[in-house]
Amino acid sequence: MKLLYFVAATLSMSASFATFASEQGEAIFKENGCDACHAAARKSAGPSIKEIVAKYAGNKHAQVWLEKKVRKGGSGSFGSTSMPPIIEPTNSEIKVVVGWILSQKLDAQHAYD
User: Fold this and answer.
1) pLDDT over 70 at 71, yes or no
2) Where are the alpha helices (DSSP H) in the chain?
């Protein structure tokens, strides 16, 4: 019986953390101006969230690769447009934002679009 309570409590905390991380990811994304170049479903200066999710769907290295791309910048992943390195957010904030991006549904529409 104690195991059942432990499992239920763990699942509840996991769901709460996922909701928290999702809310934090979107907030950090907006606070750092990521939405100036990345919209939910349409290409602007950079690829849309939908394009990023589609490109990296099922890629077990996506989180690490995208964190590095955000930190260091670069080009070539989605064409010749260059993404500057992002200096302001901390590594943990970058991790949360990238996790939030990769968790988005392909058909998602958000207020920042």
Assistant:
1) yes
2) 2-31, 49-56, 62-72, 91-103
